[in-house]
Amino acid sequence: MDIIANYGTTLVLVAALFGFLMAWGIGANDVANAMGTSVGTKSLTIRQAIIIAMIFEFAGAYLAGGEVTATIRSGIIDSNAFADAPDLLVLGMIASLLAAGLWLILASYFGWPVSTTHSIIGAIVGFAVVSIGPEAVQWNKFGGIVGSWIITPAISGIIAYFMFISVQKLIFNTDNPLDNAKRYVPFYMFLTSLVICLVTIKKGLTHVGLHLSNGEGVLLSVAISIAVAFAGWIYIRGQQYNPKDDSKMHFANVEKVFGILMIITACAMAFAHGSNDVANAIGPLSAVASIVAAGGEIGGSSHIAWWILPLGGIGIVIGLATMGEKVMATVGTGITHLTPSRGFAAQLATAATVVIASGTGLPISTTQTLVGAVMGVGLARGIAALNLGVLRNIVVSWVITLPAGAILAIAIFYVLQACFS
Asked: DSSP H helical segments within 278-387, as ranges?
């Protein structure tokens, strides 16, 4: 308690700095989840992808990023175990932010697509075990999170598989693929728009004072999505192509149509990613700020300070703009060959899965969700379409991340204890 009383402001400032570093690492590593497939299919250049991601990552973080912070902040460890030692909780959360941030930046430097959620969870569990003991960790909830690492890639993979199969059957495996693209692509545009509208209207806009009932949110989402689909229908019908072109040229023209869709799905994925993964940075930071503001008292739900969400959003944007290229290349081109239609199926499946998880407050690994979706698209063409060597390296990096976060957090926790005691 003495540490909080004597160094409260300093602790919050240090936590804000390390929280910003963590958000930087999230942007540097997880930008591949939002933009890797778009760049890999050449639907967007790297510069265009960064600009789009800047806008929608920040919007997702600021408008819809508050839902999952409670799980990160108080769901992994038992806050009651720290009731008599709030100093340990504050120092531990600060150590976790720095540990996870450093690991993400290191992984981004080498182009490893690791899980930001794994990083922060490993760090929090690590300091909790050495400061209080294993009983401080709510292993039942931890098990649920671990389960989600398996379930969510499976869900996104299944969605992506059937989404791509539907594209193949309705468009590519027909006598007139271009005509069928003009007929069915607006429907895919409707689905994509509905995904992003539902999370924005139903959950995100409550942070800016607009509260809608479930029915109102669904109706407004459907109305907007119908408008988007209609606009897309008008645009696609206006495109003129030479009917004498051979089948390869017709396929290329269809892929151009899906290239337009990729831009929409890129926006949806960036928004969904920002809404979900910002919690990994602002959750521990929010815990530190609320405990210090309460004079060391732990418990009850706390209001997220107005400056925390923008801090996380800005950090994500700067991270993806400065260090995002290497991981983007790994995910966009390393796992399997992607065309715009394949990338669209993978991105839409990932966005839908992440949005569902964000709405329920369950922190998932966006990295694993996207990899599962890309694998689903690849499996639709047979296992030979997958680069198993790259997948093996990705899985190894996932396994390393959890203990790496824990070990770094333990070391930093002891250093912080020495500095503030």
From this structure: 279-293, 308-323, 325-333, 340-360, 366-379
Q: For residues 261 and 266, what is the distance between their CA atoms, to the nearest angstrom?
A: 9
- Three-state SS at 386: strand
DSSP 31-63: HHHHHHHHHHTTSS-HHHHHHHHHHHHHHHHHH
Report CA dihedral (68, 277, 128, 75) to the nearest 10 degrees: 10
Q: DSSP assignment, residue 68?
A: T
Other beta carbons within 10 angstroms of residue 234's beta carbon come to: 10
H or E element: which one contains 218?
helix 214-237
Residue 405 CB partners (closer than 8 Å, separation 6+): 96, 99, 100, 103, 118, 119, 120, 121, 122, 123, 126
Q: Per-residue pLDDT tens for 268-303?
A: 777 767 776 777 788 888 888 888 887 777 765 556
pLDDT tens digit sequence for 390-417: 888 888 888 888 899 999 999 999 999 9
Residue 164 CA to residue 381 CA, distance in Å, equals 10
The helix-helix angle for 116-131 and 388-420 (nearest 10°) equals 40
**Rg (Cα) of the chain, in Å, rounded?**
22
pTM greater than 0.85 (yes/no): no
Q: What's the CA gap between 66 and 282, in Å, rounded?
A: 9
Q: Tell me which residue of 282, 365, 398, 411 sits closest to 22, measured CA to CA.
A: 282
The answer for 111, left when phi > 0, alpha when psi is -120 to 50, beta otherwise, is left
Measured between alpha carbons, how far is 348 from 151 in angstroms, rounded to an integer? Answer: 17
What is the maximal distance between C-alpha atoms in the chain? 81
Cβ 156 vs Cβ 313: under 8 Å: no
As a whole number of angstroms, the distance between CA 73 and CA 76 comes to 7
Is the pLDDT assigned to residue 38 strictly greater than 70?
Answer: yes
Cα distance between residue 350 and residue 406, in whole Å: 28
Q: With contact defined as beta carbons under 8 Å apart, do 351 and 265 qualify?
A: yes
- Distance (Å) of CA 375 to CA 41, 331, 384: 15, 11, 11
Structure tokens, 409? 């957090």
What is the helix, strand, coil percentage profile of the chain, to 5? 80, 0, 15
